[in-house]
Amino acid sequence: MKKLVSIIIPVYNVEDYLTFCLDSLLNQTYEDLEVIAVDDGSTDNSLAILNAYAAMDQRLRVISQANSGPSAARNLGLSMCHGEYITFMDSDDWAELTLIEKLVNALETDQSDIAICGHWIAGSHYKLKVRSRKSWVLDQKQAVKMILQDKVIKNYAWGKMIRRSLLPALQFPVDQIYEDVRSVYKVFLQASRFSLLNEPLYYYRMRQGSITYSLPAMNAAEMKKAYQEQRHEIAKFYPELISCTDMNLFKANFLILYTAARDKLMMIKPV
To answer: What's the pTM value of the predicted model, to 2 decimals?
Structure first.
């Protein structure tokens, strides 16, 4: 008998993208699913779209909460899920129809605790493939090193499937940004065996204006703080891997300088 997979989606004001996301999940080749969509107080038609889909497919469960942020939405979904395997999706992203089947197969074939797939970074006019050169099984130290490097294995909740036994290690910090950086690595520290697939099965949508041009200086400072917290915790387990966090701190420092210069230039009035 196939095991139930829970897919948790925080939803907030994504009416233009939500149907694409839901279609890619409810048409998965692996059908033993519960899709838990937590509407985080959307003010557009997102909730209506969710309810319409739920009326057509009982595997979709819709939960509503007052606007509390994606961490609170994910935590609520985690508290209500029943799956033996759990994964996450952002509500403006989408997946290959074989995503769940291949992640489940990796968990069961390799007897791993966490399965990780490659992904596409999808912009409005481009796609960038991010994946390992091969599929392989990692031990904890190898996986932790790769998530600290934040290249092939990214500091995101999506693109990963975990066993239910790891749920006690997974809580997202409420009222903090860069919540994935602050939480996902902690689950890695509780797992011993990882399946890394070299297939890009997840599509991460880069919405125009969402990062480089709209990043507030305060957010850049929070990015640095999140990576510093990660570095401090990793030092307790793998002090020899601390240097793997250097590039992330460099990136955060660069963005702090960039946003400060950008904001200063915006304040200069043309002559």
So the answer is: 0.94
